[in-house]
Design goal:
two-stranded antiparallel sheet, alpha/beta
């Protein structure tokens, strides 16, 4: 049995277990069938080859998320690290070339953890995907756009920002929880000012980080991004801070409250099509004007997991539409179709193209 066939079978089994718990909240009268232009701003470029300037820490390599990602995206993991990197990029190219809707995809690098001297701390870095590798991959496919990653604690951080901007980067990606970055740290002011001067938005993971090992989960509090916002940086909160919170409340609702106060604050809806974030998606659908401040991201390769299947949304999406969507072999097309069937506006899926025009 092919892995994608296994995925479909597993989705059916999952649906049988979750269907009794699901209440409908779909959009009445939505036909679910019209195509939409898609710009995906949240695609993880993974790499394992030191030759490509990448590595995977042993702890992360043994994690469920890493192993499951390799399985569900249907990539043969045999061969050298260089060969595996080639296969990963080839799979991404196959998905984009097989879609008449996906115009562009922002591929994301992953910087590491740095010590007090600004040197890379390999031991505490879960995985590392260099900006140079990212730029080389994006240069070979017209639909791929670089989303660089620069830890502000690296000693050449400002120079690296200038370099990646010159070579076409359209945003900077952080996972503060895992990269040991406190976004509220006053020492980052020069970094934020340089982001603003270079017109580079900051796409920052917010909320608890479940997929990658973390240094400090409190760094995922969206309130810590106020320092960047007040310096005029355009900030995109990945996953809308969907997971986690503290004694003062949910990170998600904290982010929603902040939108009213910061016109330069946006969210991306990557991950909100997963089973365990249904409540967050439901809130956005019940408050549709919020989508005017949202970008679409698939969170590839996590979008390949069974708990993203449209069968998880039976009762919210009619069975007839679920069947059609699930039969799509292209998982990126499937994700976009599922979100449209749920009622996510087409403008949200395409908004990333505005970001590219603003930053290039």
């Amino acid at each position: 049995m092919r892995r994608r066939d296994f995925f479909k079978s597993l989705s059916l089994i999952l649906a049988q277990n979750v269907f009794p718990l699901i209440r409908p909240f779909g959009v009445p009268g939505f036909d679910g069938g019209e195509p939409a232009s898609v710009c995906d701003i949240h695609i993880h470029l993974l790499g394992t080859s030191e030759q490509n300037g990448c590595f995977v820490g042993q702890k992360y390599a043994n994690s469920f998320v890493y192993r499951a990602s390799s399985f569900f995206i249907d990539i043969d993991q045999s061969g050298s690290p260089e060969e595996r990197d080639i296969k990963y990029v080839a799979r991404l190219r196959e998905l984009f070339d097989g879609s008449d809707q996906h115009r562009y995809g922002v591929l994301l690098a992953m910087d590491g953890v740095y010590d007090a001297a600004g040197n890379l701390n390999r031991e505490d870095t879960p995985f590392y995907v260099s900006n140079d590798y990212l730029l080389s991959v994006c240069a070979e496919h017209e639909k791929f756009v670089p989303g660089a990653s620069v830890n502000p604690h690296r000693k050449d951080a400002l120079d690296e920002l200038a370099k990646v901007k010159e070579k076409g980067a359209v945003l900077i990606k952080w996972i503060p929880n895992s990269q040991n970055i406190d976004p509220s740290d006053g020492r980052l002011m020069l970094f934020y000012r340089r982001l603003r001067e270079l017109n580079l938005p900051l796409l920052s993971h917010s909320g608890t980080e479940y997929a990658v090992s973390s240094v400090d989960q409190s760094y995922g509090d969206p309130a810590r991004l106020r320092t960047a916002l007040e310096e005029g940086v355009k900030v995109i909160v990945a996953h809308c801070a969907a997971g986690g919170g503290d004694r003062e409340g949910s990170y998600f609702y904290r982010f929603i409250d902040m939108i009213e106060n910061y016109p330069n604050l946006y969210g991306d809806i990557s991950g909100l099509g997963m089973l365990h974030y249904q409540r967050r998606m439901r809130y956005l659908l019940d408050h549709p004007t919020l989508f005017e401040r949202m970008y679409y991201g698939s969170d590839f390769p996590l979008v390949s997991f069974p708990f993203t299947s449209p069968y998880c949304f039976l009762g919210r999406i009619p069975l007839s539409e679920v069947w059609i969507i699930q039969e799509m072999d292209n998982i990126l097309l499937r994700d976009a179709a599922k979100l449209r069937a749920l009622g996510v506006p087409a403008e949200c899926l395409a908004r990333g193209m505005e970001l590219l025009r603003e930053t290039t």
